[in-house]
Amino acid sequence: MSIEVKVPQLPESVEDATVMAWHKQPGETVNREDNLLDLETDKVVLEVPAPGPGVLAEVRVKQGDVVRAGDVIAILSEATGEAAAPAASGATKPSEAEEAETAAGESTAAKETESDSPLSPAVRRLVVEHGLDPNAIPASGRGGRLTKEDVLEHLSQ
Known about the structure:
Order of helices and strands: EEEEEEEEHHHH
Distance between the termini: 56 Å
Helix content: 25-40%
Structural class: alpha+beta
Mean pLDDT: 78
Number of strands: 8
Oligomer: single chain
Low-confidence stretches: 81-115
C-alpha cells in the first residue's frame, strides 16, 4: 500500500508555494510526523510532515518547483521487512550523486543563512540566491533583524 503526500492547505490569500528543501531522500525510512520538506510562501515557511510511517518511495517535485495546495508531492510505501529493503537500496543507489549534490547545496545554504536573528523568507531567498553571508550585511530592522532593503542595498554597492 502507498500513501500520497500532498501539499497542505496554504495560508489565506496564498495560492502557491516553492519547494525550499527536502529533508528526506527516496529510499529513506520515515516516521509519522517526520519533516519531509519545507515549502516557502511569500508569508511563511511551512514544514510538511510525513502522514504516516514508511519508506519515501518517490519524490514528484524537486527543490525550486512551485506547488499548489492538494498537489501530490511524494509517495510513501509501507515499510514491511523484506519489501522495504529492496526499495530502499534500489532507490538510493542511482541517486547517490544527486544526494551528494543536494547535501552540498543544502549545507552551503544552511551556512549562508545562519545568523543570530531569524531571516524572513524574502531575505533568506535573496541571501541564498546571491551567495551572501547575512552576518556581513549591516542590519537596520527592529531588534537587529536583516531586512530585504538591507540586502538589496548591500547588493547595489
